[in-house]
Amino acid sequence: MGGVLGFFKPELSEFQKKKLMHEFHTFFDLNKDGKLEWKDFDLARQRVCELSGWKVGTDKYMQTQEIFIEIWRKLQDDGDSNCDGVITTEEWIRMWESFNDECVKKTEKDVDAASLVPTWLEKYILYKFNLYDRTGDGVIDLEEYEYVLSDFGVPAKDARAAYLMFSENYNKKIDIEYFRILSAEYFRSNDPGALGNFITGKLTFDD
Ligand SMILES: [Ca+2]
Ligand SMILES: [Ca+2]
C-alpha cells in the first residue's frame, strides 16, 4: 500500500517490530533460547518430517534437509552481521530495517515495495504452506491451520478467529498465491488493517 502511495518509510514502526519479534520467538527460535542458530532450523526440519511422516533416507526427507540448509544459509547471509553463526533479536530487526530501506529505494521504480520479501523468505513461505497443507491438495483448510498452529502453542480459538479474518468468512481459498500475499503483508506491511497480520494466529499486537 505504501508503494502505491509512493510513501514508504525506511524505519520500522513498533507494530512492524512486534510482528517480526512474534514470528522470531514463535516460529523461528524453536529451542526458545532467544537467538537463531542452525539448531533451530534443524528442529524445524525434523518437525516437518515428523508431521508429514517422512522417514530418514526418503527423497522428501533429503529435499527438506536441503531446503532448510538453504534457508538458513541465505538468512545468515542477510542477518548475521557479525558472522558468529547466531542471529540475535537485534540482528533480526536490523536485517528487516535494512531490507525495508532497500525497498524504499525501489519504490522509485514503481515497484510495490510492501509486497517484496527476501529470497530466503520466499522459500520459507513455501515450506510453511506445505506444513499447513497436510493433505497436499493445494489449499489450507481450517482444520489443517488449527492443527499445525496448536503444535506451536497457538490456542484453537485464536487460530479459528484468525482464519475467519484472513479467509474473509471462508470466502477466500487459502492457496499458495493468497498465502504468499498474506505472508508478505505480515512481514512487511505497516497497515493495521492488512489481513495478513492474522496469518500467525495472533489476533492483536497491542500488548
Ligand atoms: Ca534458538
Ligand atoms: Ca550474529
Structural overview:
Helix 3 runs antiparallel to helix 4. The chain is built from nine helices and no strands. It has a single domain, classed as Orthogonal Bundle (Recoverin, domain 1), CATH 1.10.238.10. The protein has 207 residues and is mainly alpha-helical. The N terminus is likely disordered. Helix content is 59%, strand content 0%.
Keywords:
mainly alpha, disordered N terminus, binds calcium ion, Recoverin, domain 1, 207 residues, 9 helices, single chain
Helix/strand layout:
Blueprint: H1 2-5, H2 14-28, H3 38-52, H4 59-79, H5 89-107, H6 119-132, H7 142-151, H8 156-166, H9 176-188
Helix pairs in contact: 2-5, 3-4, 4-6, 6-9, 7-8
The protein binds calcium ion (2 copies).
